[in-house]
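Example S7 (structure tokens).
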């Protein structure tokens, strides 16, 4: 599916790993390189050394927290992301928007949303993208329990997918989502 060999990009050193289909977790404390690793896997950052092999079908990554997105509406954001993902599911987007209570916010600019609602915009797009590899950075931050249950429910259903992978980076792996693999960056940095 997705593979890195001898990856070096601070704080990550000499990391080789392969992620299978299904849901995998990248966990670790603050500063261990979770977001950095996702950005490298997405091709947003070129590592100092090592290789990244990605499968056909694309990698979805979106960081909507930066101010450059502030004046984009939710609907325009989804439209802009859809263009690059030929397997995008508008039906899934609409189902998730309903389940996560985002329909009333479709015409609002991102800077008008709470941190949690802004994160929901990214998560909905990621899950609807249809990409072979979907990268999610701390998808539960700022969300209420009902929204967390919806997203975990989706990930639980995705866990058995034979040809797609969802990589989630967060502080610790959940016990209530079946995982294909767990990469603990705390373990790696403590050895280094």
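Recovered sequence:
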């Amino acid at each position: 599916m997705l593979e890195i060999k001898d990856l070096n990009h601070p704080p990550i050193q000499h990391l080789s790993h392969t992620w299978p289909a299904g849901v995998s977790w990248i966990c670790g404390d603050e500063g261990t390189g979770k977001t950095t690793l996702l950005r490298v896997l997405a091709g947003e950052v070129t590592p100092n050394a090592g290789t990244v092999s990605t499968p056909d079908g694309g990698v979805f990554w979106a960081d909507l927290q930066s101010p450059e997105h502030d004046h984009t509406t939710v609907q325009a954001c989804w439209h802009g992301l859809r263009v690059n993902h030929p397997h995008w599911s508008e039906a899934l987007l609409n189902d998730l928007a309903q389940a996560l209570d985002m329909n009333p916010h479709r015409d609002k600019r991102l800077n008008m949303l709470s941190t949690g609602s802004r994160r929901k915009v990214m998560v909905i797009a990621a899950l609807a993208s249809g990409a072979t590899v979907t990268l999610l950075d701390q998808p539960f931050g700022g969300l209420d329990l009902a929204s967390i249950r919806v997203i975990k429910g989706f990930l639980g259903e995705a866990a058995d997918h034979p040809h797609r992978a969802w990589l989630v980076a967060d502080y610790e792996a959940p016990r209530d989502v079946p995982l294909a693999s767990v990469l603990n960056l705390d373990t790696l940095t403590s050895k280094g």
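Notes on this example. The CA atoms of residues 131 and 161 lie 12 Å apart.
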